[in-house]
Amino acid sequence: MFKMKPLCLFLLGFFAFGDINCKGKNQNVLLIAIDDLNDWIGCLKTNSQAKTPNIDRLASRGMLFTNAHCQAPICNPSRTSFMLSLRPSTTGIYENQPWFRSVKETKNRITMGEHFVKNGYRTLTAGKIFHASKICKRSFQTYGPMPGQYSKKDKRIHKDSPSRTKLWDFGPQDYPEEEHSDYQVASWCIDQLKNHNEAPFFMAIGFYRPHVPLFAPKPYFESRPLNKVLLPEILSNDRDDLPREALQLIHNTLPPSHKWFVDSGKWKNAVRAYNACITFTDHQIGRILDALDSSSYKDNTIIVLFSDHGFHLGEKQMWAKRSLWERSTRVPLIISTPHGLKGVSCSRPVELLSIFPTLSELCKLPNPLNVDGLSITKLLEDPRSDWSHPAITTFKEGNHSIRTERYRYIRYANGSEELYDHKTDYNEWNNVINDQQYSKVRQNHSKYLSTLE
Predict the structure, then answer these.
(1) Angstrom distance (rounded) from CA 144 to CA 171
(2) Which of helix, strand or coil describes residue 303?
(3) Which of 43, 69, 115, 131 is catalytic?
(4) How far is 67 from 329, CA to CA, in rounded Å?
(5) What does the alpha-carbon distance between residue 372 and residue 329 come to, in Å, rounded to a whole number?
(6) What's the rounded Cα separation, in Å, for the pair 433 and 441?
């Protein structure tokens, strides 16, 4: 049998297990953003009915951040935030208007895509990256298909919905999967991966589903019998210990009320549709992963997958996002690097703000200037590294949530507060803000808000 000399063994080990930065500027970046996906994915184990084999496959190839959170629980400020690595309290953008290029404070800010353009990357995008699929030509040089909320072939299903917008519909659509916009976005990405180019790429792909309307191809519903659908756990008196400011903040007349979903008997239908949309999107991600593995970029591409914010399906008796609770703020975040750790998880609280500076560091680019986000490269190297930073989410001006490894602290603009201990209360059913044994926790968490002032 052939025996390697010690020096050969050392060199083999070095190249096989080198650090995550060893390829530097030769690395490509594939950014996959998913709209309205909460933490109902298989590898996060929060929903026993989650069917996301491809997202789970990606997690096995990289690091899964189990305590990742958005900076705004609504599309425009969240996407503005992670593309600029700036908090809503910095940009002043708190709602779905205005477009960040029309605001004085952010008009000339450098986006993540623009940063890569300036450093010699080819930048490409398809689907929803910026809110409402807006185009920022400074950020991307090549554009693929942009998704719409509807297809011309979509058929309304729940015409009796009391919602003021037809967005709030859900159910199977009986036309070929290939004609759905997210399928076409994935196909465009696959075509780009087939074309070899020596210049490194930064490609951002945005999937629209599971955003409402919750439409997906019929087979994704047929594999989920309605009588087997499990509903999220809720507490009938869950809102009794909430401050009035919390209820005012989450007031949203666009979706049907939780009472309508219950009284109409359509709660299970909507949950089924949401899960079907997740699995449909997961299938598109699988197609992209397969194409990447068959391409010349297989061994030098960083993959980042995340959602812009979470989504309520009855928890705390509300629907959609627009809250400062776990279901709205917690998101999947997976980072896979060619030479990094595989199949590991990190429970440190991290923010979507960190994606921009982290990718810049991994690709050995100059640090982006004047950003709020912190690189999490040290966590990619060791998920147990010391990490004293919380994840902060803001919804409308002056309302903030602080998420640490164990606790969530919320303070509203009028000074009212909430506090939840996730060690004993994952569902955030018990607001312990007035419990004296948590007074030190409350005090310590409120100090983090000074960073926003």
Answers:
(1) 27
(2) strand
(3) 131
(4) 10
(5) 18
(6) 9
Give CA separation, 99 vs 312, 376, 389, in Å: 25, 28, 29
What are 131's two structure tokens?
């809110």
Would strands 400-403 and 391-394 be described as parallel, antiparallel, or unpaired? antiparallel
CA distances from 134 to 77, 99, 102, 148, 319 (A): 13, 9, 12, 11, 26
**Each residue's pLDDT tens digit, 108-122:** 999 999 999 999 999
* Strand (E) or helix (H) holding 87: none
Residue type, 149: Q
Q: What is the 3-state secondary structure (H, E, C) of 372-426?
A: CCCCCHHHHHCCCCCCCCCEEEECCCCCEEEECCCEEEEECCCCCEEEEECCCCC
Measured distance CA(317)–CA(314) in Å, rounded: 5
Q: Any catalytic annotation for residue 75?
A: yes
| Look-up of token digits 């919390």 | 246
Catalytic residue check, 309: no
**Alpha-helix residue ranges (DSSP H) falling in 251-325:** 258-263, 267-293
Question: Would the pTM count as exceeding 0.70?
Answer: yes
Tell me the average pLDDT across 211-220. 97
How many residues in total does the chain contain?
Answer: 453
| 3-class secondary-structure state, position 64 | strand
Q: Would you state the pLDDT for residue 5?
A: 39
**Residues 43, 75, 277, 363: which is the catalytic one?**
75
pLDDT tens digits for range 233-264: 999 999 999 999 999 999 999 999 999 999 99
Give the separation between CA 96 and CA 167, rounded to whole angstroms. Answer: 16
**267-293 vs 181-194: helix axis angle to the nearest 10?**
10
Q: What is the sign, positive or negative, of the torsion defined by CA atoms of 356, 322, 34, 275?
A: positive
Closest alpha carbon to 63 in 384, 364, 326: 384
**Residue 256: cis peptide before it, omega within 30 degrees of 0:** no
What's the gap between Cα 272 and its chain centre? Answer: 21
Containing 76, the helix (H) or strand (E) segment is helix 75-84
Mean pLDDT of the chain: 93
Angle, helices 53-60 vs 267-293, to 10°: value is 50
- What does the pLDDT look like over 142-200, one tens digit per residue? 999 987 788 889 999 999 999 989 999 999 999 999 999 999 999 999 999 999 999 99
Tell me if 280 sits within 8 A of 220, measured CB to CB. yes
